Amino acid sequence: MAKKFLLLLAFVNFSFAIAFAQERVITGKVTDAKETLIGVSISILGTDKGTQTDVNGMYSIKAKTGQTLVFSYLGYKTKQVKLGDQKTLNVNLESDALMLNEVVAIGYGTVKKKDLTGAVASVSADVIAAQPVSSALQAIQGRVSGVQISSTEGSPDAEMTVRVRGGGSITGDNTPLYIVDGFPVNSISDIAPQDIESIDILKDASSTAIYGSRGANGVVLVTTKSGKEGKTAISINAFGGIRNITKTLDVLTPKDYVTWQYERALLSNDLDKYTAYFGNYQDIDLYDKVVANDWQNIIFGRTGNTYNQNISISGGGEKTKYNLSHSLVKDKAIMLGSGYQRQNLNFKLNHKLYDKLTLDFGIRYADTKTDGAGANEQNENVKDTRLKNAVIYPPFPVSNLIDNEITDDKFNLYNPLVSVYDNDKFAHRKTYNFNGALNYEIVKNLKLRSAVGYDGYRDDQDRFYGTTTYYAKNNVESFSGTPAVTFSNTQRNAIRNTNTLTYDFKKLINKNHNLNLLVGQEYFKTQESTDVTQINGFLPTFSFADTRYLSGQGKASKGAKSFSPDDILLSFFSRANYDFKGRYLLSATFRADGSSKFMESNRWGYFPSVSGAWRVSGEDFMTWSKDWLDDLKLRASYGTAGNNNIPSGQTVPLLEPNGPTTAVYTNGYTNFLAPSKIMANPDLKWETTVTQNLGLDFSLLNSKITGTAEVYLNKTKDLLILFPVGGTGYDYQYRNLGETQNKGLELSLNWSAIRKDNFDLNVNANISFNRNRVNSIGGLDNIVGNSDWASTEIQDDYKVEVGQSVGRIYGYVSDGRYEVSDFEPYNGTSWVLKSGVADVTPVVGSPRPGSMKLKNIYDEKDGKTLVNASDRTIIGDANPLHTGGFSISSRIYNFDIAAYFNWSYGNDVYNANKIEYTSTSQYNSRNMIDIMASGNRWTNLKADGTISNDAAELEAMNANTTMWSPYMSRYIISDWAVEDGSFLRLGTITLGYTLPKTISSKLKMKSARIYASGYNLLLFTNYSGFDPEVSTRRKNPLTPGVDYSAYPKSKMYVIGLDINF
């Protein structure tokens, strides 16, 4: 009996096991908080079986009890459910912003990031606020693929240049269009980073075409923070710290300096002057004990400080939401007399007037004050640069020297302290923006929005020219050598009216089809005026403060007010966005712009675009990948965008104010207006950029890994070029000439390596490759550009050629120096080159052993080896091979740490400083950098204080030296001064600690965080100058990458506090 019972029990258990293992059909519906979800992936954990929800959100799958169903959908948290004995399983998915469900601004609207069809890069408020900087552009530097953001130098108000995919213009401005809360602005440097909700950068024409005439160089959309429904929230962010210069250049010691002055005096037969100033050569060892003045540290080496605070109040109810913030930035910069202060006020209000009518209103105000003229200014004479004086001024006081001898009157070298305060400036800039919009829902999903805005700008600059400045020395004779002051005021006012009508066809035919339509009209008008008053003839002892507050003591020699022609733009635009099952996406836009900058026949530009996307991961044949592939989307786009970024009034003759030291006399009266030096061109028309873009977006492993890949080709035709027209009575004329192209590859990757309650680790990286080429220049083979850092001594140091890139440096090829073996034996009066040796006489002057030697690239037809202008060639390219950045961030319990890096690779820097700091022959009393120290440079000076011309002696004396002699008649641009500008920079590193909730709540705070940060702490580069990330001759777009007397960059250490109530 017992055996029978055991057999029966075994049979029952076996039957249950069979039943348990049998598959059955599981059905159900998948929804979110609002509606059913189409295309949700359902898979069985550990198998390759899977399915998707249909148009009604329903699914059906065969599974066994005990197995786990995995529900995944882009933009929602993945959900796992272990099966019991149920046959029906309904699942609700929760939205997850980490899975790319954030909203992205695309121009006159928004879309979910997962539904993008164009090339748009987004940076959130968290990323921007994570770095303790005063500029939003600094915060996103190296964070966005395809967007190169560079700081031009280190002054408090230094420009940040932004290039989206290279830029298409040659002589024009390649700055992208900035839109802040729907209103175009010239810059976003006056906006506090803490006030920004998001930055979206539109990179391809399918995205930018909706902005038509202004979108050719990309569009940067900035959305500031708005109020949110809930209790009033107060946020306080403040940080403060110190700044120090990152690097100085080593210069000659007092003894090396005097040794060279002696040798230079012998070579130029000027020994009496040396003896009068420096004594006898036999006493030169006394200079070993002279303490040098470290002028670089005296001028730029003070410990600066920075303070930044932001206070915001936000909140609201169902009808009204608000956000009010105030920011303060105060910087004492590292250069004497320089500083920066900015205050921002930002207010936004959203109010529901009626059920279908809402009001949006905003005010933004910025007040910026800058002290000091910096080290290098684009509109000032190169002879007044402050860094130059700090490097090459004599390293110790020299008795018996009077100013016009020691100060090197030919090239205005002055005591650095005098130079700082003699060339001074105070700038006060105010910007204010008012904008409002009414939103009315006419019928369900049909919405009308009418927005108006006003943008005001006022820039007051007081500029002082002391007795040592180039301006004062070259003023009209009656005021020559006396201090002067210029008061200038620029005002710009812009108004905008935008009206849009949108209709959202939800479920157009059924749940599978959705269509969104937008039509709009826009009107812009900008007016600008400049008022300049010049006062000369002050007493020589007057300081900047004296001339500002006692201006009546001088004589107002000029006063002019000029008005730029109005810039008016009238536009009509439309867009259609369609999607089928969220799987097939299509977008088309069209914009027509009419600009007052062109004559009636060329006034209108038309800019269409189309883009599409295919969500491959949503296809049935991709179900095998659902365990690890969250999303895979292919994108393609084609479109056009325009550019009219030239000054107004170029189609008609204009009058403009004269220069600061000139006047036109008519019938005995001074005329402060004269014909413009730019010739009118009534045939000007739109510059147009056509872009093609292919993109790939992917998300893997429950969004642990996300990324984007883009390839693009941009062609810009009918370039608006400022063309030289010598011999016509004019200097330049704007013309439509030529075509450029940019093609490239962009990659970005985000890896959430660890996601746990008390520990996470994230790595982000991006890299961009861009290749620029000039396809034509209107029938010309090439045009040249002048950086003008050396006045007339170096000309045409950049060259643009058809088939090549913009930014190529043009000059001679260095061949080291002349050795004794290059010459016939010394004939008692001169050195004669051997036959066949390159002769640099036309360029450098008569050579001798130790002189700079250049390669003879192209022999003359008669076989001579003269080096002349025809031997110049391309010696460098300022364009990088690739740029990028990466970041590593982690949170461990209440601690957080983050480090942000950016790099540039393959670009060359034109080190003009190195040229100037290694040559002194025609400029008295200059110091040099230490590569010209004794033992490094060629010398003709024997130990007994005489010049040697004996071949054997010279060879022996210079056997271990590598540099040529600095004794030359002029500056020379050669490949020796072109250096690899590649670098890797640790931009920011931050360590923070967040107080536990138990503590912060007792202190009546929602949260509190303290942190310490370092900015610009590490730089890895082979560049010998101050910093490879530099471009100081920006006035001419043809001459990027010049390093000349830039304001040195600083590193910063801060501590900060974030508090939320």
List keywords for this structure.
54 strands, TonB-dep_OMP_SusC/RagA_CS, mainly beta, 16 helices, Plug_dom, CarboxyPept-like_regulatory, transport, Immunoglobulin-like, signal
Task: Write up what this structure looks like.
This protein has 1061 residues and is mainly beta. The chain has a domain at 23-95: Immunoglobulin-like, CATH 2.60.40. It is 10% helix and 45% strand. The protein contains 16 helices and 54 strands. The strands form 13 sheets. It has a 22-stranded antiparallel β-barrel. Helix 5 (254-267) packs antiparallel against helix 6.
Give me a quick take on this structure:
Keywords: Cell outer membrane, Membrane, Signal, TonB box, Transmembrane, Transmembrane beta strand, Transport. This protein has a domain at 23-95: Immunoglobulin-like, CATH 2.60.40.
